[in-house]
Amino acid sequence: MSAAKHAAQQDSIQTPLAQVLPLQCSDLEALCALERQAYDFPWSARSLQESLAQDSVKLGLWCDTQLMGYLFAQVILDEIHLLNFTIHPAWQQRGWGRHLLGHFLAVARSLACAHLYLEVRSSNVRAIRLYHQAGCRQVGLRPGYYPAVHGREDALVMVLAL
What's this model's pTM, rounded to 2 decimal places? Predict the structure, then answer.
């Protein structure tokens, strides 16, 4: 076996197979655990529970029974607003965010949404890069939008024409 084939085979063995599935109310515990691992200021269990109960877009990225990431979005008329998009810290920088975002954008287009809107922490360089690569552009700034360890942090407002 060639070295390239062996390396490709090793990658396929080490790369988990993940599925994007609609989130259910029964996923609340996994969502809470992931929020606490990913953020200094996580959404509360109540906020997550309310998001699960809403008629909205709620997708989980699963590897077997492990929640690797998720997102919540709300459709308002012909717009879709990304409310929370999280990849487990252990799975970041491996393409899973791009995978989940791509799936989400396909869902948004299937719902006939014309635009995606989102806010992202100004310090979240990796997320900003991901959104730019997907075609988003910054259209505004919300000063002091997010809580931060030392005060508040600005949010960039981004849009993508779908």
Answer: 0.87
